[in-house]
Amino acid sequence: MSARSIIQQRPSQSGLLIALLSAFVLLSLLSGSALAAASFDEGIEYKRVAEPQRLEPGDDVEVLELFWYGCPHCYQLEPAIERWLENKPDGVSFRRLPAAASSRWIPHAKAYFAAEQLGELEKLHEPLFKALHEQRRRIFTDEQLFAFAAEQGIDEQAFRDAYQSFPVDMKVRQSAELARRYQLSGVPAIVVNGTYITGVTEAGGRDQLFELVDVLVAKEQAPSD
C-alpha cells in the first residue's frame, strides 16, 4: 500500500504528523536563533561602554555608526547598512556620526555637519565617499572641501559659513567626546544605544555585524528585571 493511500485512510494520523513536523521546524528555528545569539560574547565580538551615552536622547534604541570619509572600510560598509535599514527592527533609530577622533579627521567631520546644517547632506555624503575611494581624489583640506561642496551644487559661501560656525564646532567637540567615551579604536564602529560598541572585525564580517546589532538591539529592548 502506498504512503498516499495510508494518509488517505488515516486523516487523523496525517494531521498529527503534520503538526509534529511543524513543531519540529519551529523548535529548530528557535534553537538556531538562540545559538546565533549565544555565539556573540561580550568582550570578544562587542564591548560594553564604560561611560554609556547616546548621541541623542529618546525612547527608541539608537544604532549609531561612527565613520571617517577617508576610511575605505567605512565606504565598503555603506551597502550593508542600506540593506539593514530596509528591514531594521521596530523601535530603532539609525544615526551617523563622523568621528572627530583625530585632527586629520576633523575637516571631514566639519564638512558633514556643515552640509547637515544646510539641509544638503544628500548632496555631500555619498559623492564625497565616491570621490575619495572610486575617483581617488584628494579632498582633505578646508579649501578642497569648500570647492568640492560647490561642485555638488551647495552654495559655497553658505557652506563656508556653516563649516566655520559655532554650532558645527560644538558638534565636532561632541563627536570627539563620544569617541573618547566609547574608547574608539577604529572605524567603522557601531554603537548600540550608547551602551555597546562593535565593528566589522570584532563581529567577524559585515553580515555578522548586523546580526550582532540585532541581538544587541533586542537586549536593549528586553524588559529590565
Q: Can you describe what's shown?
A:
Residues 1-9 and 16-38 have low confidence and may be disordered. The protein has helices at 3-9, 11-38, 72-86, 106-118, 121-133, 142-151, 156-163, 166-181, 200-203, 206-221, and strands spanning 47-48, 61-67, 92-98, 189-192, 196-199. By secondary structure, the chain is of the alpha+beta class. It is built from ten helices and five strands; from the N terminus they run H-H-E-E-H-E-H-H-H-H-H-E-E-H-H.
List keywords for this structure.
225 residues; alpha+beta; 5-stranded mixed beta sheet; 5 strands; disordered N terminus
- Whole-number radius of gyration? 24 Å
Main structural class:
alpha+beta
Strand order of the largest sheet: 1-5-4-2-3
Quantity of strands, as a count: 5
Fraction of residues in β-strands: 5-15%
- Uncertain runs are 1-9, 16-38
Q: Considering DSSP H and I runs of 4 or more, what fraction of the residues is helical?
A: 55-70%
Quick description:
This protein is 58% helix and 11% strand. It contains 10 helices and 5 strands.
Q: What is the fold's blueprint, element by element?
A:
Blueprint: H1 3-9, H2 11-38, E1 47-48, E2 61-67, H3 72-86, E3 92-98, H4 106-118, H5 121-133, H6 142-151, H7 156-163, H8 166-181, E4 189-192, E5 196-199, H9 200-203, H10 206-221
Parallel strand pairs: 2-3
Antiparallel strand pairs: 1-5, 2-4, 4-5
